[in-house]
Amino acid sequence: xxxxxxxxxxxxxxxxxxxxxxxxxxxxxxxAFDQGFTSVLADGFxxxxxxxxxxxxxxxxxxxxxxxxxxxxxxxxxSEIKIRKAIGEDFCLAxxxxxxxGAKNTDPSDNYRRSTVLFESVEGKLIWHHIHExxxxxxxx
Length: 141
Prior knowledge:
Strand content: 35-45%
Order of helices and strands: HHEEHEEEE
Number of helices: 3
Mean pLDDT: 95
CATH class: Alpha Beta
Strand order of the largest sheet: 2-1-6-5-4-3
Distance between the termini: 31 Å
Radius of gyration: 15 Å
C-alpha cells in the first residue's frame, strides 16, 4: 500500500529535479534526465495545465530537456501533500500545493498551483499517470 511519506518524497523529489534542471545545477546527461524525469512518467502520462491545455508525456520531454540552465531564478516548493484515495494496492490519488518562484513561462512568475496526481506503484517506484494543475490566487489560500 502506498503511504503519505512515499508520496511526499516523490512529489518533493520530482519538483526538486525540475527546479535544479531549470537552474542548471544538475548533471546534464540523457541518463540523468531519464532517471530524474522521463522514467517516472507513465507512457500515457497526461498533464492538464492551469490554462486547461493538455500536455502528454512526449509534449513535455523535449521542451523540459532543452530548458536546462535557462532559468537560474526558478524554484518550486511543495506543501499540503495528502493522499485522497488509495485505489487497490498499487494506485493512489493525491493532492498538493505548489509554489513556483521566478517562472518564465507563467504569468505571474510567482504563482501557486493546487495539483491532483494519480500515482501507480511499480516495483517500489511511484509512476506519475495524470496530473491536473489549477491556478490558485494568493487571496484564495
